[in-house]
Amino acid sequence: VQLQASGGGLVQAGDSLRLSCAASGLTFGTYTMGWYRQAPGKEREWVAAISSGGNTFYADSVKGRFTISRDNAKNTVYLEMNSLKPEDTAVYYCAAGLRGWGASNVGYWGQGTLVTVSS
User: Fold this and answer.
1) Tens digit of pLDDT for each residue in 63-87?
2) DSSP E strands, the chain
3) What is the tens place of the pLDDT at every residue in 19-40?
């Protein structure tokens, strides 16, 4: 299984950014997919998830600002991030096979993509 995340970068507070994660080596449409993030000196935390049926779930810290979506034809999951804040600065990780929201409940991890939000 490979999860290739992309789309990170340096933006200013209030800007938007879209992350993408291309998956291979798994039956993508059957997996719950998610995004996590890890800020310097902090534990990895769950951000958002989307079930195989398209149901979406968000951490309170991003609800109303972030949108997760998936394109099963492209084996890709997205994270649209709006109204970014400096506290959103972190390495963002794509994940597959979530069995819960804790990081220990993830089946597969992708490499991270760095998002830096300047004030």
Assistant:
1) 999 999 999 999 999 999 999 999 9
2) 2-6, 9-12, 17-24, 33-38, 45-50, 56-58, 66-71, 76-81, 90-96, 108-118
3) 999 999 999 999 999 999 999 9
- Which residues neighbour 104 within 8 Å (Cβ) at sequence distance 6 or greater? none
Q: How far is CA 39 from the centre of its chain?
A: 14
- Give the CA radius of gyration of the chain: 13
- Cα–Cα distance for residue pair 115/103, rounded to 1 Å: 19
**Cα distance between residue 65 and residue 116, in whole Å:** 16
d(CA 94, CA 30): 16
- Residue 104's pLDDT band (boundaries 50, 70, 90)? confident
